[in-house]
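A.,

Following up on our hallway conversation. Structure tokens first:
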């Protein structure tokens, strides 16, 4: 006896693509991890409890770590580098491979892709600028890009500044590379594999398109605020400060309550 065919309406829904997928190529690299509201434990306790703006920014995205501990030294012209276990310094005249990675890559990659392993580190033509590969290839859902930046609200040691970039990682399936500017000379600049180097944040592409960003307005004079603007200002600023006993973190509590309500609504739909 043949089993009845399920109608299309009863077919299981297609799996929703993941918002972001991290492909680790360097096997010893630390896995990416979700950024947390405490900025890796560095936010002051009062900010963590009451400053929703700071904690939301800190938690937006994912931490990426250097695939190995390494150091750079720049004399204003030439860059030297070393890494854990190297025992010596080497000139960074051009791109260099991650130690031992080329053989690992060629042993696994298809024949037509062998010898195309991404470089780990390289000096650019401009003084003090380098490119660094995090050992990852990243794919985002269709229509989503990846903002690559320094970790939000996380203090870091001096000596370098990252360039921010937006990569269309729903289309670009290649090594996730970042550019850094060295800002100190004649001292070692250390990069630790257990400390976040970057924070990556998935953003919908329409959020930064010209059509979206050109849709703005400027109100140049205080006298041009509308009655609705003044009402909102009163509710935001005046009413809380007029309370005899003002609870701390009112904005944070209201934002979390609204977010929980929206999450519950999304779960039901």
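Then the amino acids I'd put at each of the 269 positions:
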């Amino acid at each position: 006896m043949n089993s009845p065919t399920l109608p299309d309406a009863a077919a299981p829904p297609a799996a929703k693509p993941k918002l972001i997928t991290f492909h680790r190529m360097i096997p010893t690299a630390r896995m990416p991890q979700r950024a947390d509201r405490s900025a890796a434990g560095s936010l002051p306790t009062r900010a963590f409890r009451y400053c929703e703006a700071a904690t939301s920014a800190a938690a937006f995205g994912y931490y990426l770590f250097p695939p190995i501990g390494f150091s750079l030294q720049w004399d204003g012209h030439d860059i030297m580098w070393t890494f854990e276990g190297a025992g010596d310094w080497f000139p960074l005249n051009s791109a260099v491979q991650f130690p031992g990675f080329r053989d690992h890559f060629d042993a696994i990659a298809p024949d037509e892709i062998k010898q195309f392993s991404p470089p780990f580190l390289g000096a650019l033509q401009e003084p003090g600028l380098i490119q660094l590969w995090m050992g990852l290839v990243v794919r985002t859902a269709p229509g989503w890009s990846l903002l690559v930046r320094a970790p939000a609200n996380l203090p870091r040691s001096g000596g370098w500044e990252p360039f921010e970039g937006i990569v269309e990682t729903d289309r670009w399936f290649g090594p996730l590379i970042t550019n850094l500017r060295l800002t100190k000379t004649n001292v070692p600049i250390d990069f630790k594999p257990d400390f976040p180097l970057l924070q990556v944040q998935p953003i919908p592409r329409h959020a930064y398109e010209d059509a979206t960003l050109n849709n703005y307005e400027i109100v140049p004079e205080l006298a041009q605020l509308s009655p609705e603007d003044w009402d909102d200002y009163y509710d935001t600023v005046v009413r809380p400060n007029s309370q005899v006993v003002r609870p701390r973190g009112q904005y944070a509590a209201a934002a979390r309550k609204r977010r929980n309500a929206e999450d519950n609504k999304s779960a039901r739909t």
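The mean pLDDT is 89. Curious whether your intuition agrees with the design.

B.
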